[in-house]
Amino acid sequence: MKNLNIVENEGRLRLDTDVLILGSGLAGMLLGILLHDQGAGVTIASKETFSDSNTFYAQGGVAAVTSNTFIDSITDHLNDTIKSGAGLTDEAVAKELIGAAPYLVQELSRLGMGFDRGANGSYELAREGGHSKARVLHSKDTTGKAISTALLENVQHKASSSIDFNMLEQCFAFNLLQDGQKVIGAEVLHKGVIKRIYARHTVLATGGAGQIYSRTTNPSVATADGAAMAYRAGATLADLEFMQFHPTALAKPGAPAFLISEAVRGAGAVLLDGNGKPFVKNFHPDGDLATRDVVARAIHSTMLAGNLTAVDLDLRPIGEQALQERFPNIIATCRRYGVDPTRESIPVCPAAHYFMGGVLSDAFGRTSLPGLYAIGEVASTGLHGANRLASNSLLEAGVMAINLASILSASSHGALSLLSKPSLSVGSKEEQYSVPSTLTAFKKHMYEYASLTRSEAGLTLLLARIKKDGSQLASFNVANICAANVFLIGGLIATAAMNRAESRGSHFREDFPKLNDQLYGRRQAVSQGRWHWLDSSSEYAKIDKQSARTA
Questions:
Q1: Pairing with 68, which of 55, 282, 332, 457 sits 20 to 30 Å away (CA)?
Q2: What dihedral do alpha carbons 11, 487, 219, 25 form, nearest 10°?
Q3: With b meaning 16 or more CB within 10 Å and e meaning fewer, what string describes 296-311?
Q4: How far apart are CA 56 and CA 163, in angstroms?
């Protein structure tokens, strides 16, 4: 293991580094690059390969207003974000992250990311659901792959040319280490061997939680690992009831729930019911370009009313040439599974896509645990509120990485005095992990009772099954720990959904179909089994004050 100080510690390999980053998406890789440029020693650990991330599979792009004009402005972007968030967007956080979008685009471009440009050299901008203007920068329909590829080239160069920059693949973090005062690293399974990695700062950039559900656009690695690990260590989680379901994922037997980008509807594609008629305007005046929660539930309701397994998404209004030029990956993938979008409609239905919930943090990634930071989808900053605005996720991940780099750069290198102190491993015993008897059945139950629509009756049944179903790990391996993470966070999602007896954003209660600002116009949080509502900014001030002492 080059570039790391390795010693034996209680029978396990011990590795020392300045900053440990868990996750290899946009947030993790960009943070690692920036910190190393500023003089810090960096270790980035990826659960599988560095291409296994939600970033890699993102199609749409980065929502960003790069210059204020009469056509569009940062204020317009902020207003759209707040509207999409259904009353729970943290406006201060949103201003911070959206206002930094131009700098993020500049940094990504500097590192080799090429966004599509028109003949005059200006950015080509797409319009997506919930946006009042076209403001999404992209690279065809594989923006995430282009960003990941550009950042990975930088990371690989650093790893090959520097003694203090390390890339660890097949390195799965399952437990945070604490010394009684702060987080000081993590326990990992690295190629089957348990190791302890100690760091001055530990950063969760572990992505989302789509694999909690039987139908998801997320890759197999998205099993809520960071949120589960943080929760077991005592961190505060928030907004767990809010899971966004992408309206349009391929729904064809034998095919994965491949995401059909919202950008196709921005370009003119239309959703059709079983009779071949447009239907979304029956649910909302914005029609096919309404926010994701509205469109997803419109599809769900239409499927139930017509006893359908899917609705149709017709891309042909875009025009064959424009389709080939703008959405080549979507066309190629659909054809691979027997559907030609230039000749016929695509069968689609919703799938779990983005987790607004996660580890409660501020715009700089600081959490309730000193020494622990969370950036990207694993974090819950309040930017997205109850429903993420399309393409704000890559924006958040990138700006949070830039923000965190700015506060860690001054304190992340130098003598690692904490490493000589005794360490306390929190929650690493096998008996502290509970798994469902059948993971497949659990994920189906989550989709049935805690997805697009919820009710007290369904959630009560789900929670009773969860309480009855849990059992200890049969063996300590990555698959079983992932199952335990899915089971833990799935149960918290169900509880949070039960607690919020109203409908808001991506959370829809059939028994409480209306919004109730008086009782629930606030965010919900949980730590060590204790639930509470975040009534004011005092909670965030507490996080800032507590974490500032470690930065």
A1: 55
A2: -60
A3: bbbbbebbeeeebebb
A4: 27
The SS3 of residue 11 is coil
Helix runs in 235-340, H state only = 263-266, 292-306, 320-326, 328-336
CATH of region 251-351: 3.90.700.10
Cβ 229 vs Cβ 174: under 8 Å: yes
Confidence at residue 445, expressed as pLDDT on a 0 to 100 scale: 97
Q: What does the pLDDT look like over 292-327, one tens digit per residue?
A: 889 999 999 999 999 999 999 999 999 999 999 999
* pLDDT on residue 4: 54
- Mean of pLDDT over the chain: 90
Cα angle 53-59-65, degrees, rounded to a multiple of 5:
105
User: What token pair was written down for 123?
Assistant: 């950015």
Domain 430-523 bears CATH identifier 3.30.70.20: no
Residue with tokens 């009684």: 180
Instruction: Give CA 398 to chain center in angstroms.
Output: 12
535 pLDDT higher than 60 = yes
Q: Which of 425, 500, 401 lies closest to 175, judged by CA?
A: 425
The yes-or-no verdict on residue 2 having pLDDT over 80 is no
**Residues with Cβ within 8 Å of residue 346, at least 6 apart in sequence:** 248, 250, 260, 312, 313, 314, 315, 334, 339
Q: What's the pLDDT score for residue 59? A: 78
Local confidence band at 542 (pLDDT 50, 70, 90 cut-offs) = very low
Residue 191: DSSP 8-state: T
Closest-CA residue to 137 (of 107, 111, 116): 116
Q: Is 343 exposed, middle or buried (0-12, 13-18, 19+ CB in 10 A)?
A: exposed
- Has residue 443 got a pLDDT over 60? yes
Contact indicator for 233, 369 with CB cutoff of 8 Å: yes
Among residues 14, 215, 292, 366, the one annotated as catalytic is 292
Assess whether pLDDT exceeds 80 at residue 412: no
What residue spans define the domains of the chain? 251-351, 430-523
475: left (phi over 0), alpha (psi -120 to 50) or beta: beta
Q: For Cα atoms 325, 50, 213, give the angle at the middle one, nearest 5 degrees.
A: 80
The residue behind tokens 């695509």 is 346
Asked if 472 and 430 count as a contact pair (C-beta separation under 8 A), the reply is yes
Question: Is 504 annotated in the active site?
Answer: no
Rounded to whole angstroms, the Cα distance separating 279 from 209 reads 30
Query: How confident is the model at residue 5, as a pLDDT?
Result: 55
